[in-house]
Amino acid sequence: MHHGKLLSILQSVFNCPTAPFHEYHVRDHLLSLLEKFPHVSVEEDDFGNLIARYQRGSSKARWAFGAHMDHPAWVNDPKGKKLPEGGLDPRFPDMRFLGGVPKSYLPTGEVAHFGEFAMWDLPAFEYDRENDLIYGRVCDDLVGCVAIVALFSELERLEVPGACYGIFTRAEEVGFVGAVHLATKGRLPDDLCFVSLETSSPRGTVEMGKGPVVRVGDRLSVFDDEATAQLLSAAESGGVEVQRALLDGGACEATAMNLFGVCATGISVLLGNYHNCAPSGRIDSEYVSLKDVKSMIAVIVSLIVHSGSRRDGVKSRKDARARLEQRLKDYGPYIRATKCQFGDS
Ligand SMILES: [Zn+2]
Fold this sequence. Notes:
Blueprint: H1 3-14, H2 24-34, E1 40-44, E2 50-56, E3 63-68, E4 73-76, E5 95-98, E6 111-114, E7 117-120, E8 126-128, E9 133-136, H3 142-157, E10 162-169, H4 177-184, E11 193-200, E12 213-217, H5 225-237, E13 243-246, H6 253-259, E14 263-270, E15 286-289, H7 290-306, H8 315-330, H9 332-337
The structure holds zinc ion.
The site of zinc ion has 3 residues, from loops.
């Protein structure tokens, strides 16, 4: 996708304030972006998750790309006898903090109010051109939302025949509430594979700027082997540099789908200052590498362009199996030479 166009979509989506259960600003803006795509139709389920479908030609969609519209934030206490736990701060007696942020960070951030909720008072969007980094009060997971919009934009531009879903969920930060609603209310076709598009803290040897990470799992579960291999195949076919790792710093919606029997995998852009928690111990902007974001978009575009059906088979896995079988033949002389030491003969 053209650099300037991607930056402008990122900026417009990052400008939308959001919080768990208060995703309407993001939702409205995404709807305005999606309505421009002639081959994309959008439905909203009764929970408020957006289910967008690209359909060009008659083929069946095999992939659903998912991102969540919320981010940890302060939320007004609704009327209710007993509210689930949340962070409390004497500055905001009628609000609580929803989302995974250590308590010690909460007093370190100033807030900006948006009606029924409040966010950290940080710039919505900044682009550090020199280092090619995007800073925002919310990267997690507006980056994923933008990636889905960019995917549709590229499929339209390239006139790609095929079909896929883009799913924008609510209330991920409090335990995948939107995704669980989606998985349990049966709104997705049975043979669909869900790909969580996320931002995640680096783990192990992966590094920001070296490509998005095809996740083999998260803190709670291991992802679908074939689907993960197919993502890696798509990256190879598209000539996109990716990394592969278990990112177990957090859990993502792929685990929620997994637990409810939906085939699921994930791809993540590495994130700095996860959930606005800077190494200094204070609240600060999250940041990602724009190059990694572009590569994530390129991988999912390639997945639809090169392997629209996950039943087409996974070339890299077939190749790997063939290589291992060949080894059995290649080492035949050694096997025969030592045969007398093993087995019945
Ligand atoms: Zn998060």
